[in-house]
Amino acid sequence: FNKSVxxxxxxxxxxxxxxxxxxxxxxxxxPANRLGDKLTYTMLRExxxxxxxxxxxxxxxxxxxxxNLGKExxxxxxxxxxxxxxxxxxxxxxxxxxxxxxxGESGKxxxxxxxxxxxxxxxxxxxxxAIQAASSNFQxxxxxxxxxxxxxxxxxxxxxxxxxGRTHLVRAEQVIESGADTVVTGCNFCFGxxxxxxxxxxxxxxxxVVVKDxxxxxxxxxx
Length: 223
Known about the structure:
The chain has 10 helices and 5 strands; from the N terminus they run αααβαβαβαααβαβα. It has helices at about 1-15, 30-35, 40-50, 65-70, 85-95, 115-120, 125-135, 165-175, 190-200, 215-220; strands at about 55-60, 80-85, 110, 180-185, 210-215. Strands 3-4-5 form a 3-stranded parallel sheet, with helices on both faces. It has a two-stranded parallel ribbon with strand order 1-2. It starts with a helix and ends with a helix.
């Protein structure tokens, strides 16, 4: 996923956007919060609030961070910054003509909506704006948008293995059934779960579906 971060900064550079990176960036605390570790969550939240005290806008590639920084923290302290997910920024740059994207993505492309992005933040259209700027062969999955199926990492399940069934394998099977050559997502957790699930679920003789972030498909097709 580090490459996706680099691709997002590439997009910002091409668009001429001025930005900075936190010198001491810590986790937003979402996993600790979901696991009930309130002490660790409080320590992380207080550190981040201090780091962001003079910040006007925060952009993150992680929907879990976007929810915590923009919604959860507000329950404890007043926040002086706004929070955007990187797909919102990319979608706006495309619509305003700040970056030019060509339809150079080959094969069929589908999109996995992250739960936190679609249901918690109501961000559904912006990722599709970006994807459809790079691909003329976009195919929705049956469970998409606000009715998306979790990748299997939500609620801190990334660290706690399910005892019955594997949600990420169910979602991977749906990706394969869509006939897509590439699945795009907008979440680092989903990115990892797609990578894990598609390997064992891919039928013999078929090429494994490529996993990309929204930043990847746009950066790969900048005009």
